Amino acid sequence: MTKKNLPRLLLGLALCCALTACKGSAVKEEADTLVQIDKYTLTRSEVTKLIPEGSSPADSLLIAENYIKKWITDVLIYKVAERNIGNGGEEIERLVEEYRQALLRQRYLDIMVHDKLSAQISEKDKQAYYREDSQRFVLKTNLIRGLFVKVPADAPGLDNVRKWYRSEKTDAVENIEKYSLSNAAVYEYFYDRWMDLDEVLQKMPIQVTDKAQFLRTNRAIETTDSTYCYFLNISRYVTAGSIAPYDYARPEIEETMINQRKVDFLRNFEEELYRDAVRKGDVTFFYDTKQDNNKKK
User: Fold this and answer.
1) In what side-by-side order are the strands of the sheet with 143-152?
2) How far apart are alpha carbons 86 and 95 in whole angstroms?
3) DSSP structure string for 31-57
């Protein structure tokens, strides 16, 4: 692919990236070829999935352009290397195999450690850890529970939405869920989990300077722009600087407790694995291990 063709290619990609930035996961592109060098191909879907949701068209295009150029350069260097030194022979194969084995070992140990230790750490243990060391879970951000709806400004039944979104009653929630299926651009129910206030406010055309005061004085917030109406109901909140609620801190607690026990667990696991293999005869020694151990003494 020549430099002459790159701007045209990127221009076509820009539209794809802009659509992705605007519609997020709602847009699914076909995995068609974007760049090809001999047998090596780069698809549009590979590039667009690298674009962070919410990126501007300009940022999306810059990210795409940089990635495409890097991909092309990497392939060209690989082809030059392959021409000059071949496939690397036995040394490359050995290094590749060692790396594959190391990745597989690490992947297995990570999964095994997490699964085994998670099962060993009881809910009572986690709650005790939280009570004894709660100061380590001081929030750096504001958390809320609630409901958020973004509806086109010309959507029907907005007066009903204004009544429903303020209530946590089952019938109101069911009504707004049914309504959102066919009318809402965004519907998020999070009465049962904590969300970062900043993350929610980014979805609304609203500027908040004193967020703690905002939370103390607002429960049902409605705002509009030229295209959408935005509805946010806040059922509960915790301000930055407070101790995080247990259910929010729980994943961090579990991960911390796993890491604290990980070293001893792995040491015991490896030692037991070694002893069992030797005892069962799965390992064949071509030297006298007892004599060798005596020499070390």
Assistant:
1) 186-196, 143-152, 228-238, 220-224
2) 15
3) --EEEEETTEEEEHHHHHTTSPTT--H
**Residue 294 half-sphere exposure, CB side, CA atoms within 13 Å?**
5
What is the separation, in whole angstroms, between the first and last Cα of the chain?
A: 66
- Which single residue is written with the structure tokens 């501007």? 56
Whole-angstrom Cα distance, residue 64 to residue 191?
Answer: 37
- Taking alpha carbons only, the member of 242, 138, 250, 149 closest to residue 193 is 250
Q: Are 10 and 65 in contact (CB under 8 A)?
A: yes
Dist. CA 89–CA 96, nearest whole Å: 11
| Predicted TM-score of the model (pTM) | 0.63
Q: How many CB atoms lie within 10 A of CB 177?
A: 15
Contacts (Cβ under 8 Å, ≥6 apart) of 75 = 37, 40
Q: At what angle do helices 6-23 and 57-85 cross, to 10 degrees?
A: 130
- Residue by residue, pLDDT tens for the chain (297 residues) are 444 444 445 545 544 544 444 444 333 444 588 899 999 999 988 898 888 887 888 888 999 999 999 999 999 998 998 888 877 677 888 888 999 999 999 999 999 999 999 999 999 999 999 999 999 999 999 999 999 999 999 999 999 999 999 999 999 999 999 999 999 999 999 999 999 999 999 999 999 999 999 999 999 999 999 999 999 999 999 999 999 999 999 999 999 999 999 999 999 999 999 999 999 999 888 877 666 555 555
Using CB atoms within 10 Å of the CB of residue 228, give its burial: 0 to 12 exposed, 13 to 18 middle, 19+ buried: buried
C-alpha–C-alpha distance, residues 55 and 150, integer Å: 19
